[in-house]
C-alpha cells in the first residue's frame, strides 16, 4: 500500500480537484471577478481526466 | 464564479486581499512568509475568535484574459501550488478552513463583514473539524487478477470450464459464451459487494466521507480506479484507519485490488454542508 504525501508532482491533479471546486467559497459580494477562472476550471478538468486514465 | 466588488467595479490598479484560510485566533504563528504573488507577506485579519490569513495582491495580476489558454494553465498551476503550500504549512500547526482558489476580497472591512456574516457557521465547522484530518483513499483493480480469482472461486463457472474440453466444437462455442456472460455478471456483483465492504469498513474508522465519481472499468485495463473518496479521520485514531486499509489489502490482494492513501489534506471536502 502506497502512502503518499500531498505535495509531490503527480498530485497536482489532486490539488486542482480540491482547490478549484471545494473549500470555503467567499461570498460573491466580496469576491473579485476572475475572468479567466471559468476557462481554467474547464482546462483543469481535462488535465485531471488525462492524469486519471 | 462571479462577480463584483462591493458597490462598484474595481480599478485594476487597485489592491485586494487574497484569502487562504480561516482559523481560530489562537494561532501558533504564521511565520514570515510571502503570499501567492511572492511579494506581499501573509498577515492576519481578526474578527472575534477567528482570524483570516491573507496577503495583499494587485488585482490586475488576477484578471486573466481569455486569450492564451496555455499561459493561463501554466500560471494557474504555479499559483495553485503556492496557495496549497501555504495552506499545508499552516495546517501543520493549526486547525483551519481552507478557501477555494482565487478568493480575493476588496479590503479588510469587506473581509470583516464576511466573517461577521458567516461567523457562527465558521465556528461550527471548525469545531466539527477539530483534531481531524482529510485523507484520500483510492482503490485500484487489476482486471485479469480479479477475473481469474472470480473464476476460480465460483463453482458454477469452474464446473462449466471443466467440461468444455469434453464438448463438441459447436457445443463448446455456446458453452464458452455462457461462461463469458456468467463471468461478466458475477464480476459486476462481486465488484459491487467489494466496494460496499470497503466503504462499510472505512466508515467505522472515520467521521465523514465524500465520494468522487469514478468511471468503472469498461475495458480490460489494469489498475483501473474503482473507488476514490475523501475521509475525515480523527488524528488520534489514524493508525486504526491505516490498519483497516492494511487489513483490506490482505483480504483483497488476491482479487487484484490495491489501495493508495494520500494525505493529510487541508479539509477542502468537509467545509461546506
Task: Describe the fold and architecture.
- The complex is a heterodimer of chains A (53) and B (273).
- Chain A has 53 residues and is mainly alpha-helical.
- Chain A has helices at 12-21, 37-52, and one strand spanning 2-4.
- Chain A has a domain at 23-52.
- Chain A is built from 2 helices and 1 strand; from the N terminus they run βαα.
- Chain A is rod-shaped, with a radius of gyration of 14 Å.
- Mean pLDDT of chain A is 55; it is low at 4-10 and 28-53.
- With 273 residues, chain B is an alpha+beta fold.
- Helix content of chain B is 42%, strand content 24%.
- Chain B contains 7 helices and 9 strands.
- In chain B, the strands form 2 sheets. In chain B, strands 1, 2, 3, 4 and 5 form a 5-stranded antiparallel β-sheet that branches. A 4-stranded antiparallel β-sheet of chain B has the order 7-8-6-9.
- In chain B, β2 and β3 form a beta hairpin.
- Chain B starts with 14 loop residues before the first strand and ends in an 8-residue tail after the last strand.
- Chains A and B meet through β1, α1 and α2 of A and β1, α1, β4, β5 and α2 of B.
- β1 of chain A pairs parallel with β9 (257-265) of chain B, so a sheet runs across the interface.
Number of domains of chain B: 2
Query: For the CA atoms, what is the radius of gyration of chain A?
Result: 14 Å
Shape label of chain B? elongated
Using the coordinates above, name the CATH class of the largest domain in chain B: Alpha Beta
* Chain pair forming the biggest interface: A-B, 41 and 65 residues
Portion in beta strands of chain A: 5-15%
- The beta-strand count of chain A equals 1
- In which range does the helix fraction of chain B lie? 40-55%
What's the overall average pLDDT of chain B, rounded?
87
How far apart are the first and last residues' alpha carbons of chain A, in Å?
A: 20 Å
Unreliable parts of chain A? 4-10, 28-53
Write the CATH fold name of the largest domain in chain B. Answer: Alpha-Beta Plaits
- Which structural class fits the helix and strand makeup of chain B? alpha+beta
